[in-house]
Specification:
By secondary structure, this protein is of the alpha+beta class. It has eight helices and twelve strands. The chain has four domains: about 25 residues; about 80 residues, no CATH class; about 70 residues, Rod shape-determining protein MreC, domain 1 (Thrombin, subunit H), CATH 2.40.10.340; about 80 residues, Beta Barrel (Thrombin, subunit H).
């Protein structure tokens, strides 16, 4: 105690000076918008840089796990490519004759020709329709592929158990990131980009009460809004709302993105319904959805750039 008193006695002038400096700096930031904005901007840059440096060291230690994860993702991509090729073969191959003859006739306004013996379809007409269908399918795939660009990023900071959570990623405007880009993982949707600096960006995840995502139930294509408004927040669950109780809903139903959003394409995985409730005093369901994205282990994400978003928004604004 004596040494502590001697310390304060010896350095009392310096301690008072330091206290006054802290107080004046606080008042400066409190009542001067420009200085406050500049200071917080610089602090964000310094903090982001420090987090990134620390993350690089952690990545070096975890190289084996990262390589394993990348290998798993590559395997999933190869599997998807294989599945798509099989679907293309089915749609353009001989199997499609029995499945799609009426569809071909309706889509291309061409009557199906029957042979004179009444035994089946005219081979020349079918070959022509198959070629036309293949060209249309190839054009559609090429056209849809150009609707979105994708950019990989890594989560370097964030929260999971607050009312309004956030995530920070290591890509910014210098890498092509913009506000309102959708964010997904290899398993499902994650959220939407909310703010961007040159080298970093913040994401509002599904785990935020300020975000609502238009989704659909795969079974019957009925639409609803995915929200995170549980009084006891859990990063494993969200709620699908806005669906009437007259609609057949079952536990285990798959939930996908509806496509009614500028952020996400249709039919991206969201989760599975595991609890069915009726909203209090309402005829609407409150469906608990177990999310496909595991936010507790989430590390790498992909940003979706909707190339035609501005065109769509401009057109829709004319109707407001």
């Amino acid at each position: 105690m004596r040494n502590l008193l001697l310390f304060f006695t010896r350095y009392n002038a310096f301690l008072v000076f330091l206290l006054l400096q802290i107080l004046s700096f606080g008042l400066l930031l409190r009542y001067n918008h420009y200085q406050r904005a500049t200071t917080f901007s610089n602090l964000n840059i310094v903090t982001g840089t420090m987090i990134e440096k620390t993350d690089k060291i952690r990545d070096y230690v975890k190289l084996q796990d990262i390589n394993t994860q990348l290998a798993e993702e590559n395997a999933l991509l190869l599997q998807e490519i294989s599945t798509l090729r099989q679907q293309l073969d089915l749609n353009t191959g001989s199997e499609c004759i029995d499945i799609y003859p009426t569809l071909f006739a309706n889509n291309y306004n061409a009557p199906l020709a029957l042979d004179t013996a009444g035994m089946g379809y005219d081979s020349l007409a079918i070959d022509s329709l198959k070629k036309q269908a293949a060209l249309e399918l190839e054009a559609k795939i090429s056209r849809d592929a150009r609707l979105y660009n994708f950019l990989g990023a890594k989560i370097i900071n964030g929260s999971l158990y607050r009312t309004n959570n956030y995530l920070t990623i290591n890509k910014g405007s210098l890498h092509g990131v913009r506000q309102e880009m959708g964010v997904v993982s290899k398993n499902g949707i994650v959220g939407v980009v909310s703010a961007v600096s040159p080298n970093f960006a913040t994401v509002i995840p599904i785990l935020n009460r300020n975000l609502q995502i238009s989704c659909k139930v795969k079974r019957n294509n009925v639409k609803g809004s995915l929200t995170w408004n549980d009084p006891m927040p859990n990063p494993k669950y969200a709620y699908l709302e806005g669906i009437g109780k007259d609609i057949l809903i079952m536990a285990g139903d798959t939930v996908l993105t509806s496509g009614y959003s500028e952020f996400f394409p249709a039919s991206l995985p969201v989760g599975v319904i595991d609890d069915i409730q009726l909203a209090e005093g309402s005829n609407l369901y409150r469906l608990r959805v177990r999310l496909d994205t595991d936010f507790q282990t989430l590390e790498y994400v992909y940003l979706i750039d909707n190339i035609r978003k501005n065109e769509q928004r401009t057109l829709e604004d004319r109707n407001k």
